[in-house]
């Protein structure tokens, strides 16, 4: 699955996007975040419980229990500050 | 219509282009967001002197189009224009333009405010402030923006 990072998540994780191979047990948005947290200290910290983050699935805001599918575009970013 | 662009825009030219030839329009409301002249000095004596707006290409256009559609369903609008810039900007530069046109002023006023409130909390843009030493820091979201949005919930 393609995972995109924006703003401080991009700078913290060190890339704007990456292709992640997910195990079959990963079924929801929350599962993806849990899986990413196991990828190393940088991920665990950037996606820590104390951080306020938003997730978009195929360019729509997503909830933690939304189901993911192969080929989805998954984006993680902080609350927006445009305008 | 929505536009996401790096370039500056000419407010007068945009409004003229929108109203030209449409005599059903009785009132136009516009809002222009600018980069503030940040004269606040931070704790370490550095000063913010520019900002860079990052966005999520694709989702930005999608969200802005949805926001426009919602406004058009809610108010009788003749036309809507949203322009949002990205990239590096200095104080005084335009960031965002919202223009609404309707037969009557109330729809134009209300929908322009609605569009700005939605855009501030839903459009995927992030501000990176740059200080006079070249260091960047990400701007935190404000709760007051969420409060502004909640007043439109019916």
Automatic annotation (TrEMBL), chain A:
GO MF: nucleotide binding
One annotated Gene Ontology cellular component of this protein: molybdopterin adenylyltransferase complex
UniProt keywords, alphabetically: Nucleotide-binding
CDD domains in the cross-refs: Ubl_MoaD
InterPro entries given in the database record: Beta-grasp_dom_sf, MoaD_arc-typ, MOCS2A, Mopterin_synth/thiamin_S_b, ThiS/MoaD-like
Superkingdom, natural source: Bacteria
One of the GO biological process terms: Mo-molybdopterin cofactor biosynthetic process
Similarity comment: family membership: Belongs to the MoaD family.
Protein name: Molybdopterin synthase sulfur carrier subunit
Biological classification of the source: Bacteria, Pseudomonadati, Pseudomonadota, Alphaproteobacteria, Rhodospirillales
Recorded name of the encoding gene: moaD
TrEMBL record, chain B:
Gene Ontology molecular function terms on file: molybdopterin synthase activity
Uppermost EC category: transferase
Pathway(s) it belongs to: Cofactor biosynthesis; molybdopterin biosynthesis
Organism: Terasakiella brassicae
Gene Ontology BP, a term: Mo-molybdopterin cofactor biosynthetic process
A Pfam entry, by short name: MoaE
Family note: Belongs to the MoaE family.
Name of the protein in question: Molybdopterin synthase catalytic subunit
Function description: Converts molybdopterin precursor Z into molybdopterin. This requires the incorporation of two sulfur atoms into precursor Z to generate a dithiolene group. The sulfur is provided by MoaD.
Region (Disordered) location: 132-154
E.C. designation(s): 2.8.1.12
Subunit structure: Heterotetramer of 2 MoaD subunits and 2 MoaE subunits. Also stable as homodimer. The enzyme changes between these two forms during catalysis.
InterPro entries: MoaE_sf (IPR036563), Mopterin_biosynth_MoaE (IPR003448)
